[in-house]
Amino acid sequence: MTIAPLMPVYPRCGVRPVRGEGCYLIAEDGTRYLDMAAGIAVNALGHSHPKLIEAIQRQAATLMHVSNLYGSPQGEHFAQRLVDATFADTVFFTNSGAEAVECAIKTARRYHYANGHPERHDLITFNNAFHGRTLGTISATNQAKMRDGFEPLLPGFKYAPFDDLAAALALVDEHTAGFLVEPIQGEGGLRPASEAFLKGLRQACDEHGLLLVLDEVQCGYGRTGTFFAHELYGVTPDIMASAKGIGGGFPLGACLATAEAAKGMVFGTHGSTYGGNPLAMAAGEAVLDVIQEPGFLDHVTAMGQRLRQALEQMIPNHDHLFEEVRGHGLMLGLKLKTDARRFVGFLRDEHQLLTVSAGDNVVRLVPPLVIDESHVAECVEKLSAAARVYVPVADD
Length: 396
Hints:
- With 396 residues, the chain is of the alpha/beta class.
- Helix content is 36%, strand content 18%.
- It has helices spanning 38-41, 50-60, 73-85, 97-114, 135-139, 144-147, 165-170, 195-208, 230-233, 278-291, 296-314, 340-351, 373-389, and strands at 17-21, 24-27, 32-35, 90-94, 122-126, 157-160, 176-181, 184-185, 191-192, 211-215, 239-242, 253-257, 322-328, 331-336, 353-354, 356-358, 362-365.
- The protein is globular, with a radius of gyration of 21 Å.
């Protein structure tokens, strides 16, 4: 039996990028693609941003890794900046979004343990959620495509329909630790939660001594036009997972928590060999420098509005194919009446436009946060040109 050197768990397409310039990827054959995928919402500053390059190069020449056995001036400084900019009092740095969610789950369980209630270990999560690919995070979703073949999964999770407050509250019992929810489901189809839903979960947590745990791995870090998506709703979490855009392409994640929620996370309860190393911290600081520049988030909001308006104006011209636009800021989804994954491939191969498919036949548009009007116009022009000639197959 033969197998590829790269374990074949991804159905990789024929695009083979070797270079990036701003909002474009260049393949090894020289083909230039408009990148409205941004590494699945990771490349917040686009490709080859000079500030990010300079920060990584400078730190790599100084100190890359020492482990968490020693004091971390780099980690302390970056953590303080995140604390100052958010609801949180403390931060644990990870290498990925899944690890950030794992830390969030452990923090929530440990909180109740520290309060003398180890029986309160269940997190209520939501249908079609995506929290990562570890055993813990696939246990936190009810999607069979994530779970099949990996049983037995971890106990401690219950599942409710997304954006259904009554159904979520009906699952609360003496074993409930809190709720784990994405303010905007990404992989699940670009579904934003309603304000009433998130505020209702917050109220339930306050009334019953539960924790609100937000997964903002995809929707956070400036993607919606606010620093984190929960700010759109006027809701404050107890614990939050962040990743993707936080490192601008460098592997980095973070679990943020209030002092109260993190009371159980004492010496020896969690750890990471690589998490928060000096090189990652330098990348994170550079990204945060740019995001905190005056007007940056206003630019994201403006570009998000411009892209949404252009998409909504385009839909009536191709209403045989498109249904609606979903999402906030530069986390938008174009709902199709046919197979989105196939259309994403057509956009890529025939029109040099990179997008990402999501659940519920949605084409995800999660471009670099630094896009301008020209990129918006080019994207919609390519979408419209593709729609004019695209022929769905009978079983789409």
